[in-house]
Amino acid sequence: MPRPFVTVTLLPHATLAAVLVLTACGSEPPPRAAPPGAIIGVSPPARAESVPAAPPIPSIAPVERPRLAMGSTEGQAGADPELSTLDDAQLAAIVQAVLDGEIRTAQLAESQAATPEVKGFAHDTTTAYLDMQIRQNAIMQRLQVASSGESAPGARQKDAAQTKMTVLLRAPRSEFDHDYVDAEVRDQTADVDLLKRVVSSVHDPDFRTQLQAIENAVEGRLRMAQILQQRLAREATRRTPPRP
Fold first, then answer.
1. What is the pLDDT of residue 138?
2. For residue 17, what pLDDT is reported?
3. Mean pLDDT, rounded, for 222-237
4. Per DSSP, which regions of 76-233 are E strands?
């Protein structure tokens, strides 16, 4: 039996190289198996980019308010439109009228009061206001402030003190204690308000400091008067017989 003939075709080197390249491109290797535990189809998270730091906030210099000169009443809280036009001598006369009126009233109550507790309160009031008056005169003398040039507020204060004395002198003896203590609470409340206005209007800083001390002392006497007023009211309630 005759053997079959095998025909071998020799290709040029360039053609053979092209065939090998095409064969290599067309036959891709099989994909590699995913490792155990890996999530298929999810790409790994991208690396976070670093965020640049914010620029520093520039510091702002504080705004400095203009300071008032010593003795100036401009911009003071509670400056009184009436008293701010007066000089220190006229303001001192107002304070002097307040102290004189309280001393005279307390001396009257010390002699006319019926109960020992009201007499004692009047005595303490006299002592306290005399001490205020001594300190007032000392600071006025040192600052060379003469208590002169009476103003309208000063005249009203003197008239009020005289009216208070007249009313108390006409009060029945049995009602004097209550009338006196009630008048002290009412008038010392007004005195504290007036002294606050004077303090806000005075010009000399040392004089203002002294007046603030007097204002605080008057407030202390006012608190004592309020306590005594409440005590007298409770005693009057206990003495009042019940209605049938």
1. 86
2. 43
3. 94
4. none
